[in-house]
């Protein structure tokens, strides 16, 4: 047998082994049972308090945090509550972001405006701000093979994640953008683009552009009693580097209920909900 023929046989055998291994891996991935984030009346509330803030991830660029000169005091602790004020010494913020936030903070500290987020007035939260929900009203997951829905019971905001499909070719920016997902073992991975710039990324009202790109990794912990999401936020026009935040939740059982955020919509802080002057029907 010529050396050339021998090499062909070796190459063919290697290709066959590689094909079988790849096929086996694909079949294993298809037959793996995905994590079940829902169970009867289960919902998820935040472990680190009701406020939509994020924990840093060691070794990764952190999210915006509170200004030590203006510590946050929540309701219900026997002290005068305060607004959340961002620490603008964060080196990851682009100059225009810092200037935008500085003007906002100056007006808040001068008493000219409140520091509530748009969601406080029933405005869609967008991503990643949606991850801050889950307290005191829970997040609820609805999972099907083709879609995963995540609902926040406070005002029925819903995220729709389309499974095992690519992003659309031409996206028109929207409040929640386009989220596509897949499972990696025990983890739900969600990739979101196409977000408009009308939302903020965190409770400190940090702005972003339409280049915002968020990747989330959801998984359960403690034998299904807890849940964690670690998310990477990238926007080259707003941040020098992608930053990473984390949010933890605990499972709760409670009866479903309806809570309409639009009620009493004449008192909606700085973000006014539009009202119809003429009935549609």
What does this structure look like?
The structure is a single chain. Helices cover 16% and strands 24% of the residues. By secondary structure, the protein is an alpha+beta fold. Strands 1, 2, 3, 4, 5, 6, 7, 8, 9 and 10 form a 10-stranded mixed beta sheet that branches. The protein is globular, with a radius of gyration of 23 Å. The termini are far apart. The model is unreliable at 1-30 (pLDDT under 50).
Q: What is the approximate shape?
A: globular
> What structural class do you assign from the helix and strand content?
alpha+beta
Backbone CA Rg:
23 Å
Order of helices and strands: HEEHEEEEEEEE
The residue-averaged pLDDT reads: 82
Could you give a short account of the major beta sheet?
10 strands, mixed
Q: If helices are DSSP runs of H or I spanning 4 or more residues, what is the number of helices?
A: 2
**Separation of the first and last Cα atoms:** 86 Å
Percent range for β-strand residues:
15-25%
Number of domains: 1
Number of strands: 10
What is the helix content?
10-25%
List segments where confidence is low: pLDDT < 50 over at least 5 consecutive residues: 1-30
